[in-house]
């Protein structure tokens, strides 16, 4: 999977749950405007695997802000695509500010993950990039991790079919299938699952990601296929399905330094000017 860590403009994100039977017709529509993501070319189902390790406090603060519909909120996760020792793991802060999705992302080498999750900044040689924007991303991730005393809570994986605008990747439309989810408290980028539950099955999660203006052709697609927007947050849906008690109080990590009250981190993230977004 790509080691790409390019920055992109902020995006809006709309989600829909659709029947599998309608996906071929939507795909056919998309081919007039978008191209298949390079990482889906030649793969079964035109899809590649995506893994996420979600981090949260023991009282599940980020989960509760999502469930309660908090206007400005964020989540912490590691994103990776396989279990190969030489491929990177991406540290992500995904924030919602009003209706806009903002994401910061920095790649680290896999051996850095245990110390990273214990609250330590990776050494420079363990970063994929030392550009200031990526250093700012990993510093922000570390700051929020420590403020929440966040620990690994859940692992989910799915197959993603992605269609992208050829010029600048500013528009992405993705189909997520076979979404599996289970509690996970390991301080590494795991790919295997023991007893996962299926989320949203048998439906497919369709996501539309675009810059400030909603393209007319996307609006036409939504109307033509009678798509109904809905919430489909993978992390919070999984926690709600299995019950919060399954995700509390596990894992043992080094003590983190408390810099200021955790509640202050939410406001700081909402007011931040640095924006990184990846589909």
Describe the structure.
With 279 residues, the protein is an alpha+beta fold. It has one domain: mRNA Triphosphatase Cet1, Chain A. It has helices at 23-30, 61-67, 113-117, 132-148, 216-224, 234-242, 262-271, and strands at 11-18, 35-36, 48-56, 73-80, 89-97, 100-108, 151-164, 172-183, 197-198, 204-210. It has an eight-stranded antiparallel β-barrel with strand order 1-6-5-4-3-7-8-10, surrounded by four helices. Strand 5 (89-97) and strand 6 (100-108) form a beta hairpin.
Short description:
It is built from seven helices and ten strands. It is of the alpha+beta class. It has a single domain (11-271), classed as Alpha-Beta Barrel (mRNA Triphosphatase Cet1, Chain A).
Q: Which structural class fits the helix and strand makeup?
A: alpha+beta
The unreliable regions are 1-9, 252-279
From the spread of the alpha carbons, the general shape counts as globular
Spatially, the strands of the biggest sheet line up as 1-6-5-4-3-7-8-10
The CATH homologous superfamily name equals VTC, catalytic tunnel domain
Estimated radius of gyration: 18 Å
């Amino acid at each position: 999977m790509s080691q790409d860590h390019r920055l992109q403009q902020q995006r809006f994100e709309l989600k829909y749950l659709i029947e599998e039977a309608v996906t071929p017709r939507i795909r056919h529509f998309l081919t007039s405007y978008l191209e298949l993501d390079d990482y889906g070319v030649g793969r079964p189902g035109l899809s590649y695997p995506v893994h996420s390790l979600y981090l949260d406090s023991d009282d599940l603060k980020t989960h509760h802000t999502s469930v309660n519909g908090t206007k400005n909120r964020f989540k912490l996760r590691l994103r990776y695509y396989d279990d190969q020792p030489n491929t990177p793991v991406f540290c992500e802060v995904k924030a919602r500010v009003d209706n806009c999705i903002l994401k910061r992302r920095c790649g680290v080498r896999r051996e850095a993950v245990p110390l990273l999750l214990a609250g330590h900044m990776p050494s420079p040689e363990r970063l994929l990039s030392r550009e200031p924007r990526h250093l700012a991303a990993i510093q922000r991730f570390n700051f929020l991790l420590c403020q929440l005393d966040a620990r690994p809570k859940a692992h989910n994986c799915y197959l993603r079919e992605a269609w992208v605008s050829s010029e600048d990747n500013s528009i992405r439309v993705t189909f997520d299938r076979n979404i599996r989810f289970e509690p996970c408290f390991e301080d590494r980028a795991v790919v295997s699952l023991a007893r996962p539950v299926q989320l949203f099955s048998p439906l497919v999660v369709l996501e539309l990601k675009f810059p400030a203006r909603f393209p007319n052709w996307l609006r036409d697609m939504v109307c033509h296929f009678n798509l109904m927007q809905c919430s489909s947050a993978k992390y919070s849906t999984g926690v709600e399905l299995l019950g919060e008690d399954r995700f509390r109080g596990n894992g043992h990590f080094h003590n983190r330094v408390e810099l200021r009250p955790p509640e202050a981190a939410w406001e700081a993230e909402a007011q931040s000017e640095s924006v990184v977004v990846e589909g």
